[in-house]
Amino acid sequence: MSLKEKAAGLKRDIPAVFLSLRHKETPMIAKVIAGVTIAYALSPVDLIPDFVPVLGYLDDLIILPALVALTIRLVPEDVMKQCQIQADGMWKDGKPKRWFYAMPILVIWLLIIYFIIKCFRNR
After folding, report:
1. Which end of the chain is more exposed for a tag (fewer CB within 10 A), N or C?
2. Residue 21 in domain
3. Which three-class secondary structure state does DSSP give residue 59?
4. What gap in Å lies between CA 16 and CA 34, rounded to an integer?
5. Is this model's pTM higher than 0.70 or not?
6. How many domains does the chain have?
7. HSE-CB for 14 with a 13 A CA cutoff
8. H-helix or E-strand containing 95?
C-alpha cells in the first residue's frame, strides 16, 4: 500500500472513528480512545511542534495513525464497517462537509485559554 493510499484510508477512518462514538455497541474503552484520537486529530497543538526538524512531522505520521489503528481494533468489526461506509460521504473536495463536528474541540480550547488567562489575572 502506497503512502497516498494510506493517507486516503486515514481520511476515511478518522470520520469513521468519530461516528463509532455514537454506537451503543462500541465498548467504553474504545469510545475513550476514539475521543482521544479525534481530539488529537482536530487539535491545533501537537505533542512535538511541527517546527522541530523531522520529529515535528513524525508525530503526525506515527501517533495519529497508531491511535486510529488502535481504535479500529477496539471497535467491533461490523460497527466499524458501518461507520466507514457512512464516512465515505463526509468529505467533499478534501474538506469536511460538516465543519461543526470540530465545535467541541474549539470549545475545549477556548475554555483552556479562558482558564489560563484567569490564572494569570489572579496573580
Report:
1. C
2. yes
3. helix
4. 10
5. no
6. 1
7. 22
8. strand 95-96
